UniProtKB/TrEMBL annotation:
GO terms for biological process: peptide transport; transmembrane transport. Pfam families: ABC_tran, oligo_HPY. Belongs to the ABC transporter superfamily. InterPro entries: AAA+_ATPase, ABC_transp_ATP-bind, ABC_transporter-like_ATP-bd, ABC_transporter-like_CS, Oligopep_ABC_C, P-loop_NTPase. One of its GO terms (molecular function) is ATP binding. SUPFAM superfamilies: P-loop containing nucleoside triphosphate hydrolases. This is Oligopeptide/dipeptide ABC transporter, ATPase subunit. It comes from Syntrophobotulus glycolicus (strain DSM 8271 / FlGlyR). Keywords: ATP-binding, Hydrolase, Nucleotide-binding, Transport. Its EC number is 3.6.3.24.
Length: 329
């Protein structure tokens, strides 16, 4: 459970002045165990920062992160090491995240060694089991990363991430660097591992089609804030926040006849700088429904129906809801 997560960066001082970038600004959500929450939004909206701060790879500015009933934001080194076993990260580039001078066997043995878990034959058996879990032959153990294709390398990265049988994995653009044909294989691997090991994923991606396929729930971020979060079907076919509606309308529809039923919503202007986000609702400079209140007051993050949260002044009741929905139709 993430509550009011905030991460501010300070820019390098320029003539004595340093500016604050609110990379993540008061984000709250709860993950459901064994499920996948997708996190989408334009680049620079704070998605990766959310992932990194949850894993404690980046120190949060304020907020609370509770894992398994335990607050993990202020752990000492020992406690942190124990928790780390349960929290892992898989990121985009399988080329740079593997040590080129290590054989796969060594790469996969490393987490066990760090935690002093297995040795000798037992360790080799563990490595073999990991390779099997990610669909690589046992002979892979004696090879180096450069001997594998991009997709195979990502399998090795995944094997390393699940070595200690974590409970929660942040996947940050895990298939973005791969060919489309390979993407679906890796995505299927993610879902089979989820079933087999009971994993919970936070799946960060700018690829809306991939996120739709893997997620149970989806959160949409804009300029450091969550604007909407809900069940995947709700978000993709019946979103309430004007930004989500615009984002979803930009997904290409494969069938030409379907195209007619969904107009692409064009947003005015450019994405504002996170150094200087607009007052009130951050989205008001580009929103087609902007009213006076939106320029003054920041909309609250509210659960408007079970497990569906929105931050927009217009989405208050059924009647206003139909106003935004009506506009789309
Ligand atoms: Fe648009 Fe106002 Fe809703 Fe912001 S609060 S998304 S500006 S209608
Ligand atoms: Mg990113």
């Amino acid at each position: 459970a993430v509550k009011n997560l905030t991460k501010y960066y300070h820019t390098k001082p320029f003539f004595g002045h340093s500016k604050v970038i609110k990379a993540v600004d008061g984000v709250s959500f709860e993950l459901q165990a064994g499920k996948t929450m997708g996190l989408v939004g334009e680049s620079g909206c704070g998605k990766s920062t959310v992932g990194k701060t949850i894993l404690n790879l980046d120190r949060l500015t304020s907020g609370s992160i509770v894992f398994d009933g335990q607050e993990i934001t202020h752990l000492n080194r020992d406690e942190l090491r124990k928790t780390r076993r349960n929290l892992q990260l898989i990121f985009q580039d399988p080329y740079s995240s593997l040590n080129a001078r290590m054989k796969v066997a060594e790469i996969l043995a490393e987490p066990f060694k760090i935690h002093r878990l297995y040795r000798g034959a037992e360790l080799r058996a563990q490595v073999e089991q990991l390779l099997d879990l990610v669909g690589l032959p046992p002979s892979s153990a004696q090879k180096y990363p450069h001997e594998f294709s991009g997709g195979q390398r990502q399998r090795i990265v995944i094997a390393r991430a699940i070595a200690l049988r974590p409970r929660f994995v942040v996947c940050d653009e895990p298939v973005s660097a791969l060919d489309v044909s390979v993407q679906s294989q890796i995505i299927n691997l993610f879902s089979s591992l989820q079933k087999e090991l009971g994993l919970t994923y936070l799946f960060i991606s700018h690829d809306l089609s991939v996120v739709r396929y893997v997620s149970d729930e989806v959160g949409v971020m804009y300029l450091g804030k969550l604007v909407e979060l809900g069940q995947v079907d709700r978000i993709y076919s019946n979103a309430l926040h004007p930004y989500t509606q615009a984002l979803m309308s930009s997904i290409p529809v494969p069938h030409p006849r379907l195209q007619r039923s969904r107009e692409k919503i064009i947003l005015a202007g450019d994405l504002p700088s996170p150094l200087n986000p607009p007052q009130g609702c951050h989205f008001h400079t580009r929103c087609n429904f902007c009213e006076e209140q939106c320029r003054q007051e920041e909309p609250r993050w509210r659960e408007i129906e079970p497990r569906h949260w929105v931050a927009c002044h217009l989405v208050k009741s059924k009647t206003v809801k139909s106003k935004t929905e009506g506009r789309e139709a």
